[in-house]
Amino acid sequence: MARPGSKLGSALRRFSGYFAVSAICGVLAASLLVPAIAGAAVALRESTTMFNNLPAELRVDTPSQSTKVLTADGKTIATFYAENRVRVSLDQMSPYIKDAIVAIEDRRFYEHGGIDAQGILRALASNLSNGGRQGASTLTQQYVTNVLNESLMSADKGDRIVLNGQKSVADKLREMRLAIELEKKYTKDQILEGYLNIVFFSRDAYGIEAASRHFFSTTARNLTLPQAALLAGLVKSPSFYNPAVYPDNAIQRRNHVLDAMLSLGRISPAEHAAAAATGVELDMTPGRQGCAGADMAPYFCDYVSHLILNNPAYGVDLAARVRTLYRGGLTITTTLDSRLQLAAQTQVDATAGANPDKWGASLVSIGPGTGKILAMAQNTVFLPEDGKFDTQLNFNVDSKDAKGNDLNGAGGFQPGSTMKPFTLAEWLREGKSLTETVDASRRSYPLNFRWKSSCGKVLGAYSTMERSLGAADDLQNNDAGYYRRMPVDYGLYNSINTATFAEAAQLDFCGIQRTVDAAGLHSGLDNAQVNMHQLGNLLGAIGVAPLVLANAFATFANDGQYCTPIAIADVTDAAGNKLPAETRSCRDAIQPNVARGVNSVLQDVLKRGSGVYIKPKVQSRFPVAAKTGTSNTNGATWVVGYTSGIATASFFGDALEGQKRPGQNITVNGKFYKSIDGYMLAGPQWANYMLEVAGLYPAAEFPPPPESMTRKR
């Protein structure tokens, strides 16, 4: 909007206005603000000197702005804010709102130099004659007030804010002085833009863009005349003129704004009549703050927020990082694929979306070769909701990655037989073949069994005869017909416990440990190493987070190269400056030929092994490998599987803190299960999801293992 009059005229008005106000402000401001002391003997010279010695510098920082968390394809996940504000430039605002706010708040805005002497005299005369307290603040003064208050709020000093009705003469004089200096530094349009971006409209709307979205589900650019007039009128008293609570008050105030616009010639009589004839016509979009109000993926949102809050790059301490997240106006672009997320959420809800016994279901996907987390879903809601399983525990991540407000991640779940491929990987690394036979008839491994370990002692024993000495009962398989000699690959794709132990009896446990460590497996509870010298861990006795397990299998899919999981692809601040994000970080972990050997066996899991009962259509359409898993008590069941483009861990079981419940004699979705197994619930959940999403990422054939691994001996 162009300012009326010449630059010279404007400069002269500011120059004369400065001295005029300086000369009278001591007496007039006192009279205006505190009529009772209007007759006090205040020397004009002393008032002028005091005014000129007031602070003149005002630091105008960017006001608190909302942080957006986005998917990789640009869809909103969630918004974080202390004040719901989205800054926009003046040319992104409707002309109506610019004219309306000037007409109702400061009609001589483009004429004065920050202080409106005429306004002060008018208010003084009114207060003296009527005994009232009419104000005379210009838009510039109001902007100064908002800047000062915002600075206190951003510094967590909101208790120091002085409300308008409580301001002293000194407070008011200081604002006048700052307003005059502000006008020397910024153009009128810059001040108007700053004001419209900072001013308070409601508890959920700071600035005109947020107000437009909140009350009318539109943008500041697209505000109509009646909408703009209503919002401009709201500034005077956001509570009294709240159109959602007091629509009659809001209409009356809006029409007063329209009258002011008409009197200034900013709208025509016809426009005035048409706008005044409309009702409130709200289209509310309530503010949704944080992960509890996320549009999607609230638990992934929570994971991302903790990555920010735990990273010193976003602030020297936690308080500073909280300010950055909630006030910094960040745009956080994540790795999440909204297509996969929608499919994952649909599947976990279908598996056990509403169950009174609170059984957990989850899916998490990661990109082999990138480490990008593509989906993270579970069958719960973040806040209590009728008929839903609510929790703020994130089933998919380590406890440390969900820690905050004394809430932890679930700490992982026993992976069961999904640990067996890592013993096979060490078997192949030591030069053995997939076709070698092992004695899976052996069930007893007593306390004195001579295990191989070049770096420590193997602990534990399976021997019913030695139970009194601390040994566990003899090893058991799920089916009785597998206590016999069998090829190693057959033992794995049929998930035979005794076959895995027969392999381990020929291996160096330190090698098994190195393989497990290289694949990134660790305890989900305390991030400790999964100690493979504890015999129970060959069959998955320590809880591992689904994300960690999915990424370990992604290492097989990626020809043995491990990539650190990443969730944050790009971060910019409110000014568009780049902030640290997570970048691809990969390393060689497992020999490529070893990974290929494992892949070849895990493809058979779905074709003729423990996953055949899933009847997965996905394996007929894409090259896919997978492994089922079930804990001893059936309380944790799994399918972890992958194509060359997506690795996914599917979990069903007891996800409550402590995880003490056995998965036996339970009813899920109206169906009774005597005991649950990986193929029953986690399996279809995984297969249906992968069938829908596998084609969205490359699903190439897995390279075959070398002939030496598959040649019969």
From TrEMBL:
<dbReference type="InterPro" id="IPR036950">
    <property type="entry name" value="PBP_transglycosylase"/>
</dbReference>
<dbReference type="GO" id="GO:0004180">
    <property type="term" value="F:carboxypeptidase activity"/>
</dbReference>
<feature type="domain" description="Penicillin-binding protein transpeptidase">
    <location>
        <begin position="364"/>
        <end position="658"/>
    </location>
</feature>
<keyword id="KW-0808">Transferase</keyword>
<dbReference type="Pfam" id="PF00905">
    <property type="entry name" value="Transpeptidase"/>
</dbReference>
<keyword id="KW-0511">Multifunctional enzyme</keyword>
<keyword id="KW-0328">Glycosyltransferase</keyword>
<dbReference type="InterPro" id="IPR001460">
    <property type="entry name" value="PCN-bd_Tpept"/>
</dbReference>
<dbReference type="InterPro" id="IPR001264">
    <property type="entry name" value="Glyco_trans_51"/>
</dbReference>
<dbReference type="InterPro" id="IPR050396">
    <property type="entry name" value="Glycosyltr_51/Transpeptidase"/>
</dbReference>
<keyword id="KW-0121">Carboxypeptidase</keyword>
<dbReference type="Pfam" id="PF00912">
    <property type="entry name" value="Transgly"/>
</dbReference>
<keyword id="KW-0378">Hydrolase</keyword>
<feature type="domain" description="Glycosyl transferase family 51">
    <location>
        <begin position="74"/>
        <end position="261"/>
    </location>
</feature>
<dbReference type="InterPro" id="IPR023346">
    <property type="entry name" value="Lysozyme-like_dom_sf"/>
</dbReference>
<protein>
    <submittedName>
        <fullName>Membrane peptidoglycan carboxypeptidase</fullName>
    </submittedName>
</protein>
<keyword id="KW-0645">Protease</keyword>
<dbReference type="InterPro" id="IPR012338">
    <property type="entry name" value="Beta-lactam/transpept-like"/>
</dbReference>
